[in-house]
Amino acid sequence: MRIGLEISPLAINFSGIPNYILRLLHGFASIDKENQYFLYTNRPIPFDLELPDNFRTVILKRPLPRFQLWFQIELPYKLKKDGIDVFHGLFSRLPFVLPVPSAITVHDLSGYRMPRLHKRKTHFTNLLYPLYVKKAARIIAVSEFTAKELASCFPETSSKTTVIHEAAPPEYSEVTEESELNRIREKYDLPHRFFLFLGTLEPRKNLPGLLEAFLQVADSVPHSLVISGAIGWKTEELFDKLKMSGVKDRVQLTGFVDRKDIPALLSLADVFVYPSLYEGFGLPVLEAMACGTPVITSNVSSMPEISGDAALLVDPGSTESISNAIMTLVHDEDKRALLRRRGLIRAREFNWEKTARETLLVYKQILSEENV
After folding, report:
1. What does the pLDDT look like over 154-204, one tens digit per residue?
2. How far is residue 248 from each of residues 185, 187, 190, 200, measured CA to CA in Å?
3. What domains are there in the chain, each with its CATH number?
């Protein structure tokens, strides 16, 4: 097969969807030396993808590469010229005119379900979603929850949706080497004991709720709260609450964390707290588990599905629920040890080679249906 993939998000940042794209590429590379992969982008990728010879990056520049005309005009032309058999929209979108059969990955429908929590451009994207899911020959949902959301919003997608889970990066594991732990503590000026959140700072992540929960326990624990991740959008409530909190010196924002530093950062944290309001998959939960960090996460959307019995689940709408869970893990050493053991086991149940194999099966299914 000659497989076309859009990888343009890798040129901008490395979180969420870009992380999914890179890990899937490496999953393909680890199991497939025969098929040819054409990786389409409108900008150079600013790091080495470290892929074998059956992967080729194609940069499209016409017209106006910084806008989306390349995706709608030059990409369809190139797909036909390159003899692509199947195109996979890894970024939940497809060209309007597509000369080859296609799949899309739907990561979540938070923008469709909760547009008020997203950027203004999300409203425009929502108008196009019905077109994308109709045009796709097959849809990959990253969780059973996301598949159910798709079926609820677009009932016609049920018969062509396949659930394929993501996974923690294979290199993520607990860091015990003191020199590496000290390097990360010094690099990010981390406190001695802390609770950690890791992810883009945006309303869906419920950071004002997390901060309020921390305020409720701050006088009873020696920990600080570390919030790591790039600043996203609509963060005014968080920063206003932080200014008024009275514990600003015990709340640290590290900004974006290099992906190579994440295992040590997670290993240093006493507890990973991820009380998101809505997740299509919730990859940071698995990443923390892979590093042996006890996890508190939400009892809504995909989080129970992904965490299984390896996390302490809370109501993200209740700061008391979050603060009670934090206090439980602070004082219950046996509970922390149990979640640590279960988390390590749970994280190993997901892997990118399995994700890649299941994705390749979807491509083969598309081509077999085309040839009927």
Report:
1. 999 999 999 999 999 999 999 999 999 999 999 999 999 999 999 999 999
2. 19, 20, 14, 20
3. 2-167+352-370 (3.40.50.2000), 178-348 (3.40.50.2000)
